[in-house]
Amino acid sequence: VPSLCEPLRAAMLSWLLSFAGIGRASAIKNMSKEQREIEALYSDLESAETYTAWLAAAVRLDELENANDFKENPESAYYDHHLIQRRVDVFRKLLADGDIPGIVFRLRVGLTRNFGGVGHPQLYDKTHVGTKRLIEEHQTLLIKMLTVVCNAQESQLPLDKKINFFIEARHALGKTALFLSGGASLGMYHLGVVKSLSEQGVLPRIICGSSAGAVVAAIVAVRTSDELCLMFSTDETPEFVDHDPVGSLKRKIQRLLSTYHLMDVGKLQQSLRSNLERVGDGDITFHEAYERTGVILNITVSPHSDFEAPQLLNYLTSPTVV
C-alpha cells in the first residue's frame, strides 16, 4: 500500500506546490499592478491642473495605501475622541429635534477651532485627503447647526439675537487667513494654491505675503472674484518668465559678477506693473485695493538692520502706500 500511495502523495505535493507557485505569482503580479497604479497616481498628483483632478487621485491613493483604516478608526493620542464622540451624539439629537435654543447654546460654549484637539497637525499627515471620519462628521455637524441658526425663522430666533450670535461666534472662531511665504521663483507655485481655493469658493478675505509670496498676494488682492477667474484662464495668467532663457541666463551671470545680485529688481517691477495694469493704471494703494475687492492684503517688510522692527503694510497701517 505504501508503494501505491507514494506516487499519489508525490502528485498531490507537486500539485500543491504548483498551486502555491501560481498563487504567489498571481500575488506578485497584482502587487506589481497596484504599485504601478500608485506610481501613476503620484504622477497625477504632481501634474494635476485642477483641484478636482488632484482630489480624485488623492482619494484613490488613500484606498490603495490603506489610509482609510486610519480614517475609520476614531482613536488617536492626538485628540480626545471620547469628547468628540459625545459632542457628535449631542449634535445629532439637537438637529433631529430642531432645538434652536439648544443649538445656539452648544455653539456658544464650544465653537473653537481646536476643540478637543481636532486641529492637531499629526491628524492630517497620515492621509492624502481628509482625516478621522469622526472629526469630519463633527465639523460637518457644526456647519449644519450654523446653517440651521442662520435659516431660523423670526419666531424661533429673533433677528437681533441672531445677529448678536454670529458676531460673537466670529470673535470666538476668528477669521481664516492665507499666508504665502517667500521662496524666490518657487513662490509662483502659490498661484496654484490660490487658483484651487478660488475655484472652490474658499479663498480667504485676508491674504498675507512675504517676499515672493507678497508678489502673488498683491496680484491676487487687487482683483475681484470674476477677475481672478479671468486671470487664471489660459490667456490671462500672470507672466514672470523671461522668454529668452539663454539671454536671461547670460544676463544673470553678468549681473552676479558685477553687482553680486542674481535677479534684476527692475525686471520684477516691470512684471508687477504689467500684471497690475490689467486691473487699473498700474498704481493702486492698499486702501484702494481693499475698497475695490474687500480683500485685506498684508505684506511684511523685513527690517534693514537689527535696530529696526519689521513692518506690516495693509489698508490700516499704510493706506496710501502704492
Automatic annotation (TrEMBL):
The lineage of its organism: Eukaryota, Cryptophyceae, Cryptomonadales, Hemiselmidaceae, Hemiselmis. Keywords: Hydrolase, Lipid degradation, Lipid metabolism, Signal. The keyword Hydrolase applies. InterPro entries: Acyl_Trfase/lysoPLipase (IPR016035), NTE (IPR050301), PNPLA_dom (IPR002641), Triacylglycerol_lipase_N (IPR021771). The keyword Lipid metabolism applies. Residues 178-322 form the PNPLA domain. This is PNPLA domain-containing protein. A motif (GXSXG) lies at residues 209-213. It comes from the Eukaryota.
